[in-house]
Amino acid sequence: MGIEVAVAARTRTTNAKIQTISITSSIRSRASSAEVVMHSSAPATWRPEAGNEIIISTTSDALRHFGGMIERVTETPTNRLEMDYTLDCKDYTWLFDRRMVTTNYGTSSGAAILADIVNTYTTGFSTAGIDNLGNIPAQRFDYVYPSDAFNSIANQQQAHWYVDFNKTVQYFSAITDVAPTTEINFDSNTADFGSLQLVEDASNVRNRIIMQGYKVA
Known about the structure:
Blueprint: E1 3-7, E2 10-11, E3 16-24, E4 33-40, E5 53-58, E6 64-77, E7 83-91, H1 93-96, E8 101-105, E9 108-109, H2 110-121, E10 126-130, E11 135-136, E12 139-144, H3 146-157, E13 159-163, E14 168-173
Parallel strand pairs: 10-14
Antiparallel strand pairs: 1-2, 1-5, 3-4, 4-7, 5-6, 6-7, 8-12, 9-11, 13-14
Helix pairs in contact: 2-3
């Protein structure tokens, strides 16, 4: 299973220092980020630029593990002719918020309002992942980012949302979230612990306590 890195729609895997790739993804905070160091050999004929699209995927299944935009490029010379570029990247939410929403909606389904925001105020994003969770009262948005409008509606409908690495907006009920497992038997189950650590400490256990300087009435 290999890693492929594409920058500005061109494969740049040979420039990427694969061991430096770090991806942080959180649906609940709706913010995924990535960091990777790219290298340009002498003579330097290419450099990544802030604002370039970056996609990190596996070659075996073409599955995207990150998709977004390069927010910051830090250039560091490794010698007189070669450069390293540390890329700080944000997911497509950065691109999702390029325009601000300024409109009013009457009482309608939350899904219809969200779909209209995506279609009217963003470019290149799909609404296929938006679930219909029922109607909401009239909404007024006065120069707010699309993500803030989504947050407002999600709070009213007890929902979660995020933009996935294929630019599809996912919106779904938070009430239907379930635990990955219903119970864990600590004596027999060692597969579902995750990062759980159990620590036993008997250093403070006492079977006798002596108090001095105290008189019982």
